[in-house]
């Protein structure tokens, strides 16, 4: 079987170290072929992002350019409608019929997975690799608990033996960073250095995103 592909979907408004360190950790620990960063167009379950899709994509590209193994997949931005993960996974599965696909997410995303569009079908097309996130204990509601009982594994080899169907909680270094906090930091006129890659911070400053000063 070909090497597994990692997928990290997000609004990335903006992309930050809390996305990138877990992505690199998973890439290396699970020996993935790559981790594709998939910026969404219209996030299904949240308010419209502050910055336009083109800005969010540009920042994701700047972040990925610095790191071997991280690539950018802009397919959701080419669909002019809410970015439902199930549609993305079905499309990718058609392109890679037998390759293991690992959809990466933070613990916050797993805890609310039962509110995703056609969530029962997600594991037919991909594994879920879940990073711990400060403030989010793996305390599942009964539906997610049942899903985890049926699909959870502690054996990472399973992710390579099967193309889809496992939930794997990965023990990653935890970083208490969010895009919300970064937007607030910039809005308050504070310095976001070391929370996100320098080229992304420069881009935000140049474009005056999040009401920061345009230089
Ligand atoms: N610090 C973090 N540690 C682990 N996973 C994270 C972290 N930040 C984001 N993620 C995960 O990355 C994915 C994309 O996150 P998203 O782009 O919404 O970032 P965010 O920081 O949660 O944004 P916001 O604060 O705007 O809600 C989600 O699956 C989320 O759980
Ligand atoms: O498909 C859904 O219904 C769905 C609901 C919520 C989130 N998602 C996806 O989960 C990823 C993280 O979302 P977010 O809102 O935390 O940036 C991103 O790829 C979203 O498109 C998908």
TrEMBL record:
<dbReference type="GO" id="GO:0016779">
    <property type="term" value="F:nucleotidyltransferase activity"/>
</dbReference>
<keyword id="KW-0662">Pyridine nucleotide biosynthesis</keyword>
<keyword id="KW-0808">Transferase</keyword>
<dbReference type="InterPro" id="IPR005248">
    <property type="entry name" value="NadD/NMNAT"/>
</dbReference>
<keyword id="KW-0067">ATP-binding</keyword>
<comment type="similarity">
    <text>Belongs to the NadD family.</text>
</comment>
<dbReference type="Pfam" id="PF01467">
    <property type="entry name" value="CTP_transf_like"/>
</dbReference>
<keyword id="KW-0547">Nucleotide-binding</keyword>
<keyword id="KW-0548">Nucleotidyltransferase</keyword>
<dbReference type="InterPro" id="IPR014729">
    <property type="entry name" value="Rossmann-like_a/b/a_fold"/>
</dbReference>
<comment type="function">
    <text>Catalyzes the reversible adenylation of nicotinate mononucleotide (NaMN) to nicotinic acid adenine dinucleotide (NaAD).</text>
</comment>
<keyword id="KW-0520">NAD</keyword>
<protein>
    <recommendedName>
        <fullName>Probable nicotinate-nucleotide adenylyltransferase</fullName>
        <ecNumber>2.7.7.18</ecNumber>
    </recommendedName>
</protein>
<comment type="pathway">
    <text>Cofactor biosynthesis; NAD(+) biosynthesis; deamido-NAD(+) from nicotinate D-ribonucleotide: step 1/1.</text>
</comment>
<dbReference type="InterPro" id="IPR004821">
    <property type="entry name" value="Cyt_trans-like"/>
</dbReference>
<feature type="domain" description="Cytidyltransferase-like">
    <location>
        <begin position="7"/>
        <end position="184"/>
    </location>
</feature>
